[in-house]
Amino acid sequence: MEAYKQEFIEFMVESNVLKFGEFTLKSGRKSPFFMNAGAYVTGTQLRKLGEYYAKAIHDNYGLDFDVLFGPAYKGIPLTVATTMAISELYGKDIRYCSNRKEIKDHGDTGILLGSKLKDGDRVVIIEDVTTSGKSIEETFPIIKAQADVEVKGLMVSLNRMEVGKGGEKCALDEIKDLYGFDTAAIVSMDEVTEYLYNKPCNGKIVIDDTLKEAIDAYYEQYGAK
What we know:
Layout: H1 3-14, E1 18-24, E2 30-35, H2 43-61, E3 67-70, H3 75-90, E4 95-104, E5 110-114, E6 122-126, H4 134-146, E7 150-159, H5 171-179, E8 182-188, H6 189-196, E9 200-201, E10 204-205, H7 209-222
Parallel strand pairs: 3-4, 3-6, 6-7, 7-8
Antiparallel strand pairs: 1-2, 4-5, 9-10
C-alpha cells in the first residue's frame, strides 16, 4: 500500500472522521464503522486532505484535465483544497467548479460557483464518500447541461464497498456502469481494515479481534459482490 494511503487512514482516525463502534446509517443498516467528512474543520486538516486527494487523483487520472467539480455543499471545500494542493505539489493549475443548491439571479448569476464550464473541458468530480450514488444522479445532469464536457472520473475519499441500490455491486461500480466514467477512492474499507487490524494508531488498537469480526459480519451481509 502506498505511503500516502497509510498516512490517510491514520489521518481519518486522528481527525475523528472515521469512527468505529455501533452506528445506524441513513439506510437503516447497523454498521460497525461510520465516516463523517464534516469533521475536517481546521486549516491544517483541509490542507492535508487536499494533498491526499491530489495524490490519489494524480495516481488514478493523471493531471490531463481542466476542471475539478465538487457537488454542493461538502464538495465545495474539497475542490478548493484539492486544486490548491495540485498547484503546490505538481505545478498544474486546475480550475475549480461547484454547483449551487439554488440558482442565483443577480451578480454572479447562474447555478455554478467558481469557474464556468466550457465545451471541451475535461472534468474530474470529487466527493467525500458515495453510498448510493444519489448526489451524482443530481449533479451529473447539471454538469452536462452547462457545456459539452468530458467527465474523466469520480474521486471519493473512502470506498465503503457496500452494495448500492442495485443490490449487487458497490455504489462506485454502479456509477461507472451507469454513467460510463471511471471511479476511484483514496482508500477502500478493505485497505483500512487490513492496515488498522491489531495495529496501534494514535496510541491504541483501533481494530481488535472483536471489531474485526463485526466488520467481517457486516460485509458478509452488505458487502458488494
